[in-house]
Each structure stands twice: as structure tokens, then as C-alpha cells.
Amino acid sequence: MSQINKIKAFIELGNFLRQFSLTENKKNPDVKGNEIYFDAFIDLIQLSQSHNGWFTPEQVYFSIQSWAEALTETNLTEWLSKYSFTNTNPKTVGLILAGNIPLVGFHDFLSVIISGHKALVKLSSNDQKLLPFLAKYLIELEPELKNYIQFTEGKLENFDAVIATGSNNTARYFEFYFKDKPSIIRKNRNSVAILTGNESKEDLENLGEDIFRYFGLGCRNVSKLFLPRNYDFKLFFEAIYKYGDVIHYEKYANNYDYNKAVFLMSLFPLLDNEFLTLKEDSSYSSPISSLFYEYYDNLDTITSRLISDKDLIQCIVSTNLVENSIPFGQTQKPKLWDYADNVDTIQFLLGI
Asked: Assuming Cys at both sites, which of 1, 155, 190, 324 could form a disulfide with 284, CB separation 3.0 to 4.6 Å?
């Protein structure tokens, strides 16, 4: 099967996904496969929360729209133009996917197929429905793709390389188990924001998107702030007030109550606005419903710290204060060429 046909299938998948949003599901008569898949996908979106309590319709629709925006001919062409696929020797690549946010493993799936390899997919128990549905739609468009996509519930077997995502604990198991195979092993990472105190209210509102999208469960969610000493939190709390409805979601509220109680019983000083707690802490990984912060005296110190800790950091959000930082509000909208952990997945796949 030619790469051109694969690219066309993913472009058509983007057209399909573009029909669905939280405000309206609008059928486009020019999109292929709607007679079979349109209503079925709406049903799946509505049922997603029953499969994973964190996958509310709002969060699933956001993920779908993000991929709809990514899967265009322009984006796919720009992404793939820097690579040469002429000498690809098809291999079977095992994918062990995470399930913390909807379709979190789709980029690895896409990369394997586009690179000319076969994807052997082991899904997370937390996200078992969305990707198989989209794979089925792709096969409807291009039946030959059936030879490139396989899902397995058991132990991964008969594969040539692996891309595995998990916690730091599971990563140690992956590194041992897959030591004889070419691999990308992804561990826990967190994202941070650097503030100066001169940010606009709009900047901070956008930062709220980086904090609260997917309830903070993603590695691209900001979990820590670096702040100038004597930072005034008033504008920050005013700006994120628009996200206060998050506390009405039971799973988030339970985490808020629990983590707040733990902090208070430990006599930690807290800042609290009744849906988010802020705790001064040198760690990067804050619990759900909590945000860590740390003061700095000069930006050079923070820059050096983040370079030293680069293997712990996924994204840095700022007003261009450090190299390769991301604008406020953009962490959950990566481009196709924004690779997780800064590891070029396509280059890896072309080299196996």
C-alpha cells in the first residue's frame, strides 16, 4: 500500500472528525462513511464517560477537534516533508499506549502507519474504545490498512520494535523486558509555566486552559509555576475563576477534597480558591486539583534548572522567556512535529 493512499486516508479521517464538536455534530454529505460511522461515533462519545469517568463529552470532543485540526493535507505534508521514506523495510511495531487522556496514543499509531510499518497495539484499560473505532473507519476507507493494524489484549509477541508509555515504575519493567528491541520508553513528565508578574489577564486565562484541560491529567498540563518573589496572586486567581465549574465534576471534587485535607493535616501552608490549591513545593508533579509553585530571583537560575531537569519536563509555558517555550493556552494543541519527550518518533521508525 502506498504512503500516498495512507496519507489520503488520514486526511479523510480529519474530515470525518471535523464534523463533531461539543456545540454541534453537523453531518457533511461529502465525508465518506457517514452512513455507517457518523451516528455510531456520537454514541461512542456519549458513552465514553461510562468507560472512563474522566472522559467527559467536553474532554473527548476537545481531543477530537484537536486531531481534526491536525489531520489536514497541509499539516501532514509539512510534517513528513523532512523525511525520506523510500527505503522503509516494513516491521511490526508494538505500541503500549497510555490512557490518561482521550486518544493520547494516536500520534504513535499515526506515525507507525505513515512510516510504512505495522502497528501492534496494546490499549490501556482506561481508553479502549476510541482508537479501535477510528482504526475501523480508516480500514473502511482503505481496506489494505487491515494488514497494518492489529490490536491485542494479551502479551505483546512477534514484534520488531516497541514504543511504550507508562509511569516511572512501569518504565523500568519496559526497559528490562524490551532491552533487546529498538524502543522508545516514555516515563512520567510534567509541564511548567514561568510567570513574571507582567502577564495580561488574557495570558492567565489561557494558562488556566493549560492547567485544567483534561482535569490536569496529561503530561502537557501545567502542574507547576515558577514565580518572581513577592508575586501577587490576585490577578492569577481572578483570571482562572472562569474554570471554577470544574469543582462540580464529582471525580475532580473528590480529589480536591482529599488532597486539600492531606495538605492541611500535614500543616502545609496553602493558597486556595475553593477549586484549586496552590502549594509551595520544589517538585514538578502536583496532585489533581493542586498546583505547585516555586519562587525565583532571576531567570538565569530557572533556565539552568530546567535544562538540568529536561528529562522531567514536557512543556515550558511562558511569554518567550526561555528557548522553545510554548505560548499560554497552547500546551494541549501540539503540532504533528511536536514530539513527546522531544524524541523524533518518525526518525526512530525509519531507523529500525
From this structure: 190
The CA-CA-CA angle for residues 96, 102, 104, to 5°, reads: 40
Please name every residue paired with 18 in a beta bridge, in sequence order, or none if there are none. none
Rounded Cα distance between 173 and 350, Å, is 25
Rounded Cα distance between 348 and 38, Å, is 35
> Of 111, 110, 219, which Cα lies nearest the Cα of 166?
219
Are the C-beta atoms of residues 25 and 42 closer than 8 Å to each other? Answer: yes
Is 285:299 a contact under the CB 8 Å cutoff? Answer: no
Q: Which residue has the cell 523525511?
A: 83
Which of 200, 216, 226, 233 is closest to 328 using CA atoms? Answer: 200
C-alpha grid cell, residue 124: 490501556
DSSP assigned state of 20: B
pLDDT tens per residue across span 270-308: 999 999 999 999 999 999 999 999 999 999 999 999 999
pLDDT digits (tens, 9 = 90+) for 131-147: 999 999 999 999 999 99
β-pairing, 92-96 vs 118-122, is parallel
By C-alpha distance, which of 25, 110, 134, 28 is closest to 334?
Answer: 110
| Closest by CA position to 213, among listed 72, 80, 54 | 54
Q: What distance, in Å, lies between the first and last C-alpha atoms of the chain?
A: 19
Cα–Cα nearest to 159, from 203, 196, 112, 206: 112
- Asked if residue 88 has pLDDT above 80, the reply is no
**How far, in Å, are 18, 202, 335 from residue 178 at the CA level?**
38, 46, 29
Q: Nine-digit cell at 114?
A: 505513515
Report the 3 state secondary structure along 52-108: CCCCCHHHHHHHHHHHHHHCCHHHHHHHHCCCCCCCCCCCEEEEECCCCCCCCCHHH
Does the pTM surpass 0.90? The reply is yes
From CA 246, how far away is CA 268, in angstroms rounded? 24
